[in-house]
Design brief:
about 625 residues; alpha/beta; Immunoglobulin-like; TIM Barrel; 3 domains; eight-stranded parallel β-barrel; five-stranded antiparallel beta sheet; 30 strands; about 25% helix
């Protein structure tokens, strides 16, 4: 078999294998008609081949003659997680991406996070495929799909998945997912999948019925932790390691993003996360693969190589940059934002040194936060102004551009998209989407009530949310309207063309300018002139660039005594770009006078190029 569990279509039938160590007998029933016994193996597995079973047939496992249950490694659940599994032959899809080698340069990635159910009105793979040209036009190089594991109910963020091998039927047939990726590759777009390996959803998870060893008593914030290191954990580890490889091999995903790695508990060596990374690389073969992690503890070892006790991943999310930007743009610093100032020094430090917290005391959590990343390559960190969590955590699901001054937001967007770290854009951010993005999940009434209670308790960490008048504006996660309102309104792109053009032009500059396109080879330095005003200088063999960021009112530099403001020898600074261009909705910008005493427009970012002086000017 390609994977050691599940149902695999063979030339003369189907081979079944499942881990059920508590059972004395396991059978498989095909299309609710005929039952076939599986043979017990010495290690708790049951397996067997059944002839004359066609692709599309439905099946269930019967445990000890009683329970009729779906396959824990089902490749498709056409009627949801509670019903029969379906035989899928992944080998029948006609791929045309043979020459696809993966993303050309990982250090030049521009990531776009999207949720298939809300990315389009239809919420399907087919509809999303029609929007790939939009992402190509924007300049995206990599798409990050929020989790697609089969879930209970009709809509979900994806983080309540229960059938980890089955792409949810709500978005279409597995071959429609393959077609989406195949077309993305034709256009030169990589696609990675957000996977949840730290817990299972609260409804529709039948794995414990096959074996109690899948979970352990340790708790995560979402429930029981997965058993990666206790008794009988080897088959559990195999289940998840093979799952990572499965998405790469059978769907041609270019990598994975692993959710909430701080809740993946494992004391063994090699660590499960290293083994997962190894599997992704193995199944990628000649294709470049990309593995990223969300880790609230900011443990930089995730991107260290194996010989330095690392997990050999490519990048880790940097929430410090987001939190500083959020405070700056909104003026709010409650809860986990309370240890950030939004001052200029935080942005200079973030661009130069990656994490802001690298082991210092973090007052909000009353403990030390982060690990040193001063000398770690900047392309190992992912920056963002929006993502699925942070938009929803505003309570009312508002987008950041709706919470901030428009000019300041454009200035911050410029800094964000030209930072040496990897930028991630959330769906609709590029055209100032008016659609909120709420937390939504469709669960039965009793469970839904618990979800609402838990969600409110989470929001109560924000003092402003401890007001009943505010709480009534927080949409209920289980209401269908909460899901429907989160769908992108694509007509916004027409009305907000200036915002789209801002993003498109900046990404093009990042990709095509000789300095910004070689950020991994560029030395970054910065200087803070006031809490609102700072500069970032890029030193490169391809030239030099200067970003002047003013997040406050108009600022007069007199005298310009900071050495980073001095142009290279026999050169002068030329203003090439500003976030206040009228085509972006701005008010224009002032020219730089020859005497060097500059008035910098408020709430703007200006980009200056170092150019050689003409012979006349150099005398």
């Amino acid at each position: 078999m390609k994977i050691p569990i599940g149902a695999e279509k063979m030339n003369d039938g189907v081979h079944f294998r499942v881990w059920a160590p508590h059972c004395k007998k396991v059978e498989v029933i095909i299309d609710s008609k005929k039952t076939y016994p599986l043979q017990a193996e010495a290690n708790g597995y049951f397996s067997g081949s059944v002839k004359n079973v066609e692709e599309g047939s439905l099946y269930q496992y019967i445990l000890d003659g009683k329970d009729h249950l779906p396959d824990p490694a089902s490749r498709f659940q056409p009627k949801g997680p509670h019903k029969e599994s379906q035989i899928i032959d992944f080998k029948t899809f006609q791929w045309t991406d043979t020459d696809w080698k993966g993303i050309e340069s990982i250090s030049k990635a521009v990531i776009y996070e999207l949720h298939i159910g809300t990315f389009t009105h239809e919420g399907t793979w087919a509809a999303a495929q029609e929007k790939l040209e939009h992402l190509l036009d924007l300049g995206i190089t990599m798409i990050e799909i929020m989790p697609i594991h089969e879930f209970s109910g009709t809509y979900n963020w994806g983080y309540d998945g229960v059938c980890l091998y089955a792409p949810t039927h709500h978005y279409g047939h597995p071959d429609e997912l393959r077609a989406f990726i195949n077309e993305a590759h034709r256009l030169g777009l990589a696609v990675i999948l957000d996977v949840v390996y730290n817990h299972f959803g609260p409804e529709g998870n039948y794995l414990p019925r096959f074996s109690s060893f899948y979970l352990k008593q340790s708790k995560t914030e979402w429930g029981d932790a997965v058993n990666f290191d206790e008794e009988h954990s080897l088959p559990v580890r195999e289940f998840f390691i093979e799952n990572a490889g499965y998405w790469i091999e059978e769907f041609h995903f270019d990598g994975i993003r692993i959710d909430a790695c701080h809740s993946i508990l494992d004391k063994t060596k090699p660590h499960i996360l290293l083994e997962i990374t190894r599997k992704v690389r193995e199944m990628g073969g000649h294709r470049k693969t990309y593995v990223t992690a969300e880790n609230e503890k900011q443990q930089v070892r995730f991107v260290f190589p194996e010989n330095e006790d690392g997990f050999a991943m490519d990048a880790i999310w940097n929430e410090d940059f987001h939190h500083a930007a959020f405070v700056r743009l909104t003026g709010h610093k409650e809860a986990y934002f309370s240890d950030y100032s939004g001052h200029a020094r935080e942005f200079v430090s973030s661009l130069k040194y990656n994490f802001l917290y690298q082991g210092q005391w973090y007052e909000w959590q009353k403990k030390h936060r982060g690990t040193p990343s001063l000398n770690v390559a900047k392309h190992h960190f992912i920056h963002f102004l929006e993502n699925h969590d942070q938009i929803a955590n505003t309570g009312c699901g508002k987008r950041l551009h709706q919470l901030s001054h428009h000019s300041t937001y454009r200035a911050m967007t410029t800094l964000f998209l030209l930072s040496p770290q990897i930028p991630l854009i959330f769906q609709g951010q590029e055209f100032a989407s008016s659609s909120p993005f709420y937390y939504f999940c469709d669960h039965p009434e009793e469970l839904a009530a618990k979800i609402v209670k838990g969600r409110l308790e989470f929001m109560f960490q924000f003092d402003s949310m401890n007001d009943e008048k505010i709480q009534k504006y927080i949409p209920l996660p289980h209401k269908k309207t909460t899901f429907e309102k989160s769908k992108l309104q694509w007509e916004n792109k027409i009305g907000n063309q200036a915002h789209f053009q801002l993003h498109k032009d900046l990404i093009a500059m990042r990709k095509n300018d000789p300095v910004f396109s070689h950020l991994s080879e560029t030395h970054i330095d910065g200087s803070v002139l006031t809490d609102d005003f700072f500069i970032i200088r890029y030193f490169s063999k391809y030239g030099e660039r200067l970003l002047i960021i003013n997040l406050g009112v108009d600022f007069f530099i007199n005298p310009p005594s900071d050495p980073l403001l001095a142009p290279p020898e026999n050169s002068e600074w030329k203003l090439k770009w500003t976030s206040e261009k009228p085509q972006y909705g701005g008010f224009g910008d002032r020219k730089i006078p020859e005497n060097g005493n500059w008035t910098i427009t408020g709430h703007s970012t200006s980009i200056l190029f170092a150019e050689k002086k003409t012979h006349e000017n150099s005398l």
